[in-house]
Design a protein that fits this description.
The protein is mostly helical. It contains 16 helices and 5 strands.
């Protein structure tokens, strides 16, 4: 490392002194200080300037000239000058810089920048461009200011008088760190854009796959409805009521979707029940009733092994269990019954009571509500009924309309496919 004698002519006592006999040159118009603003750069344009441009904040024109020659001789082509803090901030508003070299010391009749204004400058510059590297030059005795600036994010603080090689070395390190930071940011930006694009692609694929699942379910539901006219749109209404209850109880994501699928397909096992049993009005003979009670097991068998319906099988299998253990096919009691099936029981009863059946006309919502509340703790889980209690008649009407709209949409889609 060269010593001070190799850089500062003996007896001059000044900083940034030029080598003997070397005149000051400024081919870039570097120090055309019209109005204290920023001098124009050379005709070369491009992104390279932003990554190498150095802004010098120097209130003394002669000192700035000497500093400019040092930077130019050190190979730094794009350099501009600001005479005060407002000019520096204004310059950065118009063009980005890689390094701000700020002389905050006194000397040559120029007052040093006080600590508060120095820290304010650093904060304002960093707020405008967090990637800019700031090198501050302070008096030797102003150690507290240097510490404040370093704590505030300055790259380095040089004490005056600084030698040319010290400044060039510091600027070189600052540019190297900025280049590394920009490269890392570009790399992570590329990763972020790639992840975002792939996420969009995956979301599209997921939506299409989920839509295919739903279309399959609608087809299964249609197969059931074609055999049991009494259940026309029943599954969609029960699904809508049960989903609202489940959401009120905190179901989200896959858990909610499993419930929707299970509720919609709860009677899928009736596909295996003979027509004479399905179409017989009124009470069934005991031997037929035994066969009818097998439909939960048949439904479980039909759905077993279908991966996207794995979380729905328990609802299909247990949808006729009762809280008091009087249900079928296994006579489960209380918490032995899957929660989804307990929610279904309330939604199913609500639809059964408020819908027309061959043996009676539809009842009012208030009648259905009273019956469900009465059977809390026997047929229904009291915890589910407690959430149902919060639903008003207007809520029910809104949900029923939603279910009817969905039913109409599915039917319209079927008819459109038949016309093709």
């Amino acid at each position: 490392m060269p010593d001070e004698a190799n850089h500062t002519p003996a007896g001059t006592g000044s900083w940034l002194s030029l080598p003997p006999g070397k005149p000051f040159e400024s081919p870039l118009g570097f120090f055309s200080l019209v109005g204290g603003g920023v001098a124009p750069e050379s005709g070369r344009t491009g992104a390279g300037r932003e990554t190498t441009r150095i802004l010098v904040l120097e209130s003394d024109e002669a000192r700035g000239a000497r500093l400019g020659n040092v930077l130019r001789d050190g190979g730094h082509e794009f350099v501009c000058l600001a005479r005060d803090m407002p000019s520096a901030v204004e310059s950065l508003h118009h063009q980005r810089c890689a390094v701000l070299l700020a002389d905050l010391s006194g000397g040559a009749g120029c007052p040093p920048m006080d600590r508060a204004r120095g820290v304010e400058l650093l904060a304002r510059v960093k707020a405008m461009d967090p990637m800019i590297e700031i090198i501050a030059m302070t008096d030797k005795q102003d150690l507290e200011l240097a510490l404040d600036l370093m704590r505030g994010g300055a790259f380095e603080c040089l004490t005056m008088p600084a030698l040319p090689w010290q400044i060039l070395s510091c600027v070189g390190r600052a540019l190297e760190r900025r280049h590394k930071a920009l490269s890392e940011r570009a790399y992570y930006d590329l990763i972020e854009r790639t992840v975002y694009r792939r996420t969009l692609e995956l979301n599209t694929m997921f939506y299409e796959l989920e839509e295919a699942y739903r279309q399959t379910l609608w087809a299964l539901g249609s197969a059931l409805e074609s055999r049991d006219v009494e259940t026309n749109a029943h599954s969609i209404r029960v699904m809508t009521y049960s989903r609202a209850l489940a959401q009120a109880m905190g179901f989200t994501g896959n858990r909610l979707q499993d419930l929707e699928f299970g509720v919609f397909l709860h009677d899928i096992g009736k596909i295996g029940v003979p027509d004479e049993i399905l179409h017989t009005p009124g009470k069934l003979p005991e031997e037929w009733w035994v066969k009818m009670r097998e439909h939960p097991r048949r439904g479980r068998y039909l759905l077993a092994g279908i991966q996207f319906l794995e979380g729905s099988v328990d609802i299909v299998y247990c949808h006729h269990e009762r809280w008091d253990g009087g249900g079928y096919p296994r006579g489960l009691r209380r918490d032995q019954i899957p929660l989804g099936a307990r929610i279904f029981a309330v939604g199913d009863a609500l639809d059964a009571i408020t819908s027309d059946r061959p043996y009676r006309a539809a009842q009012t919502y208030q009648r259905a509500r009273a019956e469900i509340l009465t059977n809390s703790g026997t047929q229904f889980d009291p915890a589910v009924v407690a959430f149902f209690r919060e639903f008003s008649e207007s809520d029910w009407k809104k949900l029923r309309t939603e279910a009817e709209d969905l039913t109409y949409s599915i039917e319209r889609r079927k008819l459109a496919c038949l016309k093709e």
